[in-house]
Amino acid sequence: MNENDEERLNDSYDELCSLIAGVNDAAFLKEFFGCLFTPAERKDFSERWLLVKEIDAGVTQREIAKKYNMSLCKITRGSKELRKENSAFRKMLDIAESKK
């Protein structure tokens, strides 16, 4: 992949994030994600969100791995991201909590 391709991909990613941020319709986003992602991709990012919520709730990594048949590597990555300063995962969990 050359530098132009990478720049176009980054621009496309930025555009998509901006568009999604402007949508306030969960049903439409679900439909859009259904078009954009394969069932396997949707399952993968849903699992990642699930494991972050489980870690935040105090469930151990081994318990999560056993309960959801996930790799410890994937769970460890989520755990590390959650512990980062200014974690986007933490911010999203806080947003989710405020909507309850």
Architecture overview:
Belongs to the TrpR family. InterPro entries: Trp_repress (IPR000831), Trp_repress_bac (IPR013335), Trp_repressor/repl_initiator (IPR010921), TrpR-like_sf (IPR038116). Pfam families: Trp_repressor. It is found in: Cytoplasm. With 100 residues, the chain is mainly α. The protein contains six helices and no strands. Helix 3 packs across helix 5 and helix 4 crosses helix 5 (72-83). The longest helix is centred in the N-terminal third of the chain and has 19 residues, at 3-21. It is globular.
Summarize the structure.
The protein is mostly helical and 100 residues long.
Would you count the extended β strands for me? 0
**Low-confidence runs (pLDDT<50, min 5 residues)?**
none
Alpha carbon gyration radius: 16 Å
**Average of the residue pLDDT scores:** 94
Q: Please report the distance between the alpha carbons of the first and last residues.
A: 43 Å
Structural class: mainly alpha
Order of helices and strands: HHHHHH
Please give the share of residues in helix: over 70%
User: How many structural domains can be distinguished in the coordinates?
Assistant: 2
The major sheet is characterized as:
none
Question: How many H/I helical runs?
Answer: 6
* General shape: globular
Beta-strand fraction estimate: under 5%
GO cellular component, one term: cytoplasm
Pfam families: Trp_repressor
Keywords: Cytoplasm, DNA-binding, Repressor, Transcription, Transcription regulation
GO molecular function: DNA-binding transcription factor activity; sequence-specific DNA binding
